[in-house]
Write a structure and sequence with these properties.
The protein is an alpha/beta fold. It contains 18 helices and 13 strands. Strand 8 (228-233), helix 10 and strand 9 (259-264) form a beta-alpha-beta unit. Helix 4 (75-94) packs across helix 5 (104-118) and helix 6 (130-136) packs antiparallel against helix 7 (145-164). It is globular. The N and C termini lie close together (11 Å).
Length: 408
């Protein structure tokens, strides 16, 4: 198919590198002709444009980067949608597309319009429940009339996207079930394919560990061979529960004094050290370091187990933590809280970690008491879990199935 892929995330963003480009390159290898329009932020675009352009060119893709507008709120997004609409119209008239693949809600505004205007097929790749995420994350305050109007607008459009799209993509089975329970969506059950945030399991694999770098990191981060290391990977963003993870670590360190918490993040260390100090956690038991993508497997190899706690709220029913597949691919058992996307089902189905059902000291103590058993899980079991649920190749295969269904 001749596909126009629209992303409000930039290809030069870390998210674009891990969750946009790999799928597109995979689909291109299967014979689809793909043109990408993305919104690029100034600093990463300036630093990584040549590298991404080289990747795009080698894959035989066409790329039309637009500059991302960040302010003022709402107005900047309206302006970006206007520019995207003009770009899509121009590209479509020059070489008509069979399909618009729209990543998330902003670009789907243009996908919906283009389907109505030109009859182009439309994939609504929703990622998660966008408007509800903005509310749950405190980014939109419903007490503000402007944000309340924007929220209501996107909830109305959400129904239109699902009712009109030739196919919708959900990150989770839980999200798919929620969509199919909504009587307001026309033509139920609408076609929905579940494709989680996949991981490149060739990259996130113990074979990719750099032994020289590993030894240097142990020295630099003061990680001793006798330390029991748990790790968190990624930013301490809006929906991640840092306080609760630190509370878990406080229980862990009371039972295992040799425990160490390794944060692999580009966030300011003070984001972690200030709350840790308030909780009387010794800072010499916490290590914080940023990592380039190519070095992340080596950083993860320093740990015995991994952890992430995410707010168990409605909008996260449709979320798939990218880090989960990456951690499992590296052979790390995962400690996670219940109520987030399909994480519960995946951990229970694959016996690949510990599910913390309540966020309190009693539940943390119970989880810590299970850690010795957790470490007995074979690495092959963990990697098989990653392969079953988070394989990039399987994700590309599922997207291709959607494209084939639409082209029939």
């Amino acid at each position: 198919m001749n596909v126009l892929y629209l992303s409000y995330d930039g290809l030069t963003d870390s998210l674009g590198r891990s969750q946009v480009l790999p799928y597109i390159i995979g689909l291109s290898k299967l014979g689809h002709s793909i043109t990408i329009v993305s919104f690029e932020k100034k600093i990463p675009f300036q630093s990584d444009k040549k590298n991404i352009q080289k990747i795009v060119d080698e894959a035989g893709l066409k790329w039309h980067p637009l500059s991302y507008t960040s302010s003022p709120p709402v107005v900047s997004t309206i302006y970006d949608v206007y520019r995207l609409t003009n770009t899509v119209d121009k590209l479509h008239r020059a070489s008509p597309f069979d399909l618009l693949h729209c990543r998330s809600y902003i670009t789907s505004l243009v996908g919906l319009r283009t389907k109505s205007k030109f009859g182009t097929k439309f994939v609504f790749d929703m990622r998660a429940f966008y408007a509800d995420e903005r509310i749950d994350g405190g980014l939109w305050n419903l007490k503000n009339p402007l944000f309340k109007a924007v929220y209501n607008y996107f909830k109305k459009k959400e129904l239109a996207f699902l009712s009109t799209a030739d196919y919708s993509i959900s990150l989770t089975e839980k999200g798919k079930d929620i969509i199919h329970s909504w009587p307001q969506v026309q033509n139920q059950p609408v076609p929905v394919k579940v494709i989680p945030c996949c991981a490149d399991l060739h990259h996130f694999n113990p074979s990719q560990v750099n032994k020289t770098l590993q030894a240097k990191l142990k020295s630099d981060l003061q990680i001793d061979e006798k330390d029991f290391v748990i790790t968190y990977l990624g930013s301490i963003g809006t929906w991640y529960l840092l306080d609760e993870m630190l509370d878990f670590f406080r229980v862990l360190i009371s039972k295992k004094p040799n425990a160490r918490f390794l944060f692999i993040t580009t966030d300011e260390p003070s984001t972690i050290t200030i709350p840790a100090t308030k909780k009387n956690i010794p800072l010499d038991r916490i290590s914080i370091a940023p990592a380039k993508r190519e070095d992340v497997p080596t950083f993860l190899s320093l740990a015995n187990a991994a952890i992430f706690f995410i707010q168990p709220i409605f909008s996260k029913s449709g979320s798939s933590p990218t880090k989960h597949g990456e951690m499992l691919g590296m052979g790390l058992p995962v400690i996670a809280n219940a109520g987030v996307g399909d994480v519960d089902r995946i951990i229970e189905d694959t016996n690949s970690g510990i599910l913390v059902r309540e966020l309190n000291n009693a539940a943390y103590t119970s989880a810590v008491d299970q850690l010795d058993e957790l470490l007995k899980i074979p690495v092959s079991t963990l990697q098989n879990a990653a392969q079953k649920y988070y394989s990039l190749e399987e994700g590309v295969k599922k997207y291709n199935e959607v494209y084939q269904q639409i082209s029939r």
